[in-house]
Design goal:
With 152 residues, the chain is α/β, with parallel strands linked by helices. The protein has a single domain, classed as Rossmann fold, CATH 3.40.50. The protein is built from six helices and five strands, in the order βαβααβαβαβα. Helix 1 (15-25) links the parallel strand 1 (3-8) and strand 2. The chain is globular. The protein starts with a strand and ends with a helix.
């Protein structure tokens, strides 16, 4: 059995996330998704809109996902999750800022060079990312607010 690991925040779950999970699952037989710990999200991105437990439940509810786990807090090295997940492949999303070569060399240094690192392709939809969706909502909200002011 080929175990695939995917990682992400998955705040405001959307079609781009589903596509990522489908692409990751196509690489193997069993997909484990590591959902970022709330403290990691705060440290690296922003305050999460939904908590880690809800995000994990939402991700685990997606058809391609066999199992979802919450990642380590930021004070624990990122590679410490690997013995728990035991992946054969790490699937990176098309827009994740991880450097594939750096991950590969870190795996080699830890004696885990047998784990493949694969970047999956993105969705060709214009709303395939959380930031794009938020921008569209704000854009439409601004448009509607300006229209309301014109009427008054």
């Amino acid at each position: 059995m080929i175990r695939v690991m995917a990682v992400g925040v998955f705040d405001l779950l959307h079609a781009g996330h589903l596509h990522y999970m489908e692409q990751a699952k196509s690489l193997g037989d069993y997909l484990v998704v590591v959902v970022a710990h709330d403290d990691t999200v705060r440290k690296r991105k922003h305050d999460p809109i939904t908590g880690q437990d809800l995000r994990r439940r939402m991700v685990e509810g997606l058809k391609p996902v066999d199992e979802a786990v919450i990642g380590n807090s930021p004070d624990i090295p990122i590679f410490d999750i690997l013995p728990k997940v035991n992946p054969d492949i790490i699937a990176l999303g098309y827009d994740q800022e991880h450097a594939e070569e750096r991950i590969r060399s870190s795996l080699e240094e830890r004696g885990l060079g047998h784990i493949k690192v694969v970047r999956v392709e993105g969705l060709s939809d214009d709303l395939d990312g959380t930031r794009k969706i938020i921008a569209r909502i704000l854009e439409r909200s601004s448009f509607h607010n300006s229209k309301d002011k014109e009427v008054n």
